[in-house]
Amino acid sequence: MAVAPDLAFDPWDPAFVADPCPAYAELRARGRVLHYAPSDQWLVPHHADVSALLRDRRLGRTYQHRYTHEEFGRTPPAPEHEPFHVLNDHGMLDLEPPDHTRIRRLVSKAFTPRTVERLKPYVHKLAGDLVAGLVEAGGGDLLADVAEPLPVAVIAEMLGIPGPDRARLRPWSADICGMYELNPSEETAARAVRASVEFSEYLRELIAARRKEPGEDLISGLIAAHDEGDRLTEQELISTAVLLLNAGHEATVNATVNGWWALFRHPDQLAALRADPALIPSAVEELMRYDTPLQLFERWVLDEIEIDGTVLPRGAEVALLFGSANHDPEVFAAPGRLDLARRDNPHISFSAGIHYCIGAPLARIELAASMAALLEQAPSLTLAAEPERKPNFVIRGLSDLKVTL
Q1: By 3-state DSSP, what share of the chain in percent is helix, strand and coil, each rounded to 5?
Q2: Model pLDDT, residue 363
Q3: Average of pLDDT values for 42-64?
Q4: pLDDT in tens, 355-367
Q5: Which of 48, 96, 121, 159 is the most exposed place for a label (fewest CB within 10 A)?
Q6: Distance, CA of 387 to CA of 262 (rounded, Å)
Q7: For residue 98, is the peptide bond before it cis, meaning its omega torsion is within 30 degrees of 0?
């Protein structure tokens, strides 16, 4: 059994969070799957295995479609956490077929490529306006002034959240996403529960208003979406809206600031990008790979599985290490080198299989729009102060990114 008690992997260590790549290299050298006792998870560090397991139906995001908590050998969530789990467990990210298939099909009827494409002018104008504000001020916090307001406004615009209400979205999202870290504290859980209740109540009222007076927004589209008599339940509507908001901006915010922090540390690559903005599409992909905004994605073992001679029993939890997979030298030449012109870049930052990120096309539009606006309007953008990295491991980002012109 591949148990490794002395791993350098330590998601609560600030030094590890600052640069997990050396520990990832050790994990890959030690084996294809290793047990990590502090979180009771099986760590999977290699790209080939992560990619394959994301598509393996013997693993699932949930087990409750097949087993009770007791049958699966797991302790049910604390009753006081129920509002969070009701909200989380009805979103398609944490469901398996047939429910996942049904909900994703219905959501796809509203969240179409045409819908996303129609947003392009709005995204580019908003990115341009935000960057113009940063330039007029002579600099500021790239996170607070550009990276955060852009995707929050875009997904709020899509959902049809009224302008005056949008300031409440980011705090709710941040509190809910705290539960996705490893072994969250009771304080974190209490904040997530409170946010889940408040956000759900808000959306319940908004959905009721849209039922009476439908608009052109995504919530109206989700209410109307149907397939062979199937419709989303109210709880599925609420959970889907929250998922689209959380997933629709959290990764984009972090990819933006992680990306620019990487560019500032690699002036040759930043100079190449400034000299040739045609690099933007490949730069977006490479920056997503180089400093992956979601480092770990979990799966439950629904049916016993063997990996390189190690048997993972039903009920085990697998931690698929996206950050490690994206730095696997078996797949990426010189993975520690930032190469904005990298052509062969099969990163898995948007996941894979049935849970591939439905918002990936929108995220790419947003990342490219903010990058283009910054290159055009702020060609002398410079780092003003070393940023502080958030203590979180799973959702990887910065607390701020101060810049000057």
Answers
A1: 55, 10, 35
A2: 92
A3: 96
A4: 999 889 999 999 9
A5: 121
A6: 11
A7: yes
Q: In angstroms, rounded to a whole number, what is the distance separating the alpha carbons of residues 89 and 240?
A: 10
User: Cβ(268)–Cβ(260) under 8 Å?
Assistant: no
**pLDDT tens-digit series, residues 230-270:** 788 899 999 999 998 888 788 899 999 999 999 999 999 99
pTM of the model: 0.92
Query: What would you report as the CA-atom Rg of the chain, rounded to the nearest whole angstrom?
Result: 21
Two tokens at 208?
């009721």
| Number of C-beta neighbours around residue 124 at 10 A | 17
Instruction: Report how far residue 110's alpha carbon sits from residue 125's, in angstroms, rounded to the nearest whole number.
Output: 23
Instruction: Write out the two tokens for 304.
Output: 């016993």
- Name residues whose C-beta falls within 8 Å of residue 230's C-beta, 6 or more positions apart in sequence: 102, 106
Produce one character per residue of 168-191: b if its CB has 16 or more CB atoms within 10 Å, e if not.
ebbebbebbbbbbbbeeeeebbeb
The pLDDT, as a whole number, for residue 388 is: 92
**CATH no. of 14-404:** 1.10.630.10
Distance CA 405, CA 131 (A): 12
Pairing of β 305-307 and β 310-312 = antiparallel
Q: What are the CA-CA distances from residue 21 to residues 48, 95, 219, 307 (Å)?
A: 17, 31, 40, 23
What pLDDT score does 116 carry? 84
pLDDT-derived band at 1 (thresholds 50, 70, 90) equals very low
What's the pLDDT band for 228 if we cut at 50, 70, 90? low
**pLDDT surpassing 60 at residue 174:** yes
Check residue 392 and give left, alpha or beta (phi > 0: left; psi -120 to 50: alpha).
beta
CA distances, 377 to each of 58, 282, 333, 374 (Å) = 50, 21, 33, 5
- How far apart (Å, rounded) are the C-alpha atoms in residues 128 and 23? 39
